[in-house]
């Protein structure tokens, strides 16, 4: 009997009553109302939420233009009301449940749109966008062109045109380890490799910031790249045989540019790359032919005195006459307020097609050391002092720092004479 009473209270409105209903609320039973306000009509479900709060849930417009529309409208409203009552029986608020479904649907739609947008942002598009916004306005035209060209030439097309959000670290690592030098297709060049990875890291970081991807695989592979590329053992720098050094220096003197002069100076003084690049006029006394390298710039952390040869002094007087910069002896051609980068002298070797024969370090130091030792140009202690090699024996170190001034001057003078003596140039080397 109780169930019969409950059923009797539902579905109270007929199609005709719905069509003819006037202003006000008209009950269909069980909390379902037809609400008419002026020209508008709607279905409303009135209920008590599990929290005890009385609420009304809108179920949409009540269509009443025809019997067919009225019938379809009340059927849809009763179905929604039935679903709402089921939720109430389960202890859920139907309004909260509907809002939750809407939120999920909206989030899904937004995610879909975001995914579609990310699909359009390929690595190539992100790199060119970053290049246009950041690199071009802050770098020289030449450097800007080289920046994007290095990525276009070394990143495989399949990866270059892939959505940036889909690129993962393992595949990027594989691509990076495939980078080859333009001079030698059989060898990886770490400088090129690191430069490309660093630029990709900046591109991925920018894409992360603009929510075009969520990870930076170029950053993730940094350690893996170091692990995959064996480091050269100390003392294994490729060096030019000293018998070919005079011919090389003759060619180097014909090369133009500040970087070529810096390399020439480094060879004449047997200096480390950083010492020559960071040389300052305040460290140099041309009249005394002396270059004092501060301890802060030296590998061993001790002040180093270089007794320069006549060719080295002559080179510096040429640089002084050019008045390129009041501080730096070899300023960057692109940014005169800074010294050159550590790639400058390596680039000179590349232009001379010598990178497969020697490194800058090997040319400036190992070639000098081999010549001095093989020819007996000076005692081993004097040679080591010219190279500023740290003495492991502290007693000898204290003694050696105070000695050899004239011997070192004579050794570097002999080295300068050897390098500039055209009689030493081998016929085959001169022809090259």
Key traits:
DNA-binding, DNA integration, single chain, 432 residues, DNA polymerase, domain 1, disordered C terminus, alpha+beta, 3 domains, disordered N terminus, hpI Integrase, Chain A, Integrase-like_cat_sf, DNA recombination
Compile the SSE list and pairings.
Blueprint (H helix, E strand, L loop, with lengths): L1 H7 L6 H6 L3 E6 L2 E6 L2 E9 L5 E8 L5 H23 L4 H27 L2 H16 L2 H14 L2 H4 L8 H8 L13 H20 L7 H4 L1 H7 L16 H10 L3 H12 L3 H5 L6 E2 L4 E4 L10 E4 L2 H13 L21 H8 L8 H16 L4 H7 L7 H7 L4 H16 L6 H5 L1
Antiparallel strand pairs: 1-2, 2-3, 3-4, 5-6, 6-7
Helix pairs in contact: 5-6, 5-9, 6-9, 13-15, 13-16, 13-17, 18-20
Structural account:
The chain is an alpha+beta fold. It is built from 21 helices and seven strands. The chain has helices at residues 2-8, 15-20, 67-89, 94-120, 123-138, 141-154, 157-160, 169-176, 190-209, 217-220, 222-228, 245-254, 258-269, 273-277, 310-322, 344-351, 360-375, 380-386, 394-400, 405-420, 427-431; strands at residues 24-29, 32-37, 40-48, 54-61, 284-285, 290-293, 304-307. The strands form two sheets. It has a four-stranded antiparallel sheet with strand order 1-2-3-4, with helices on one face. The radius of gyration is 40 Å and the shape is rod-shaped.
Short description:
The chain is an alpha+beta fold and 432 residues long.
The CATH superfamily of the largest domain is known as: Intergrase catalytic core
The CATH architecture of the largest domain = Orthogonal Bundle
**CATH fold call of the largest domain:** hpI Integrase, Chain A
Q: What is the strand tally?
A: 7
Number of helices: 21
CATH level-1 class of the largest domain:
Mainly Alpha
Helix content: 40-55%
* Order of helical and strand elements: HHEEEEHHHHHHHHHHHHEEEHHHHHHH
- Major sheet details: 4 strands, antiparallel
Terminal-residue CA separation = 114 Å
Strand order of the largest sheet: 1-2-3-4
| Whole-number total of structural domains | 3
Low-confidence stretches: 1-7, 180-188, 392-396, 427-432
Q: Kindly estimate the percentage of residues that lie in beta strands according to DSSP.
A: 5-15%
Look at the helices and sheets and give the structural class. Answer: alpha+beta
pLDDT average, as an integer?
A: 86
Radius of gyration: 40 Å
Form type: rod-shaped
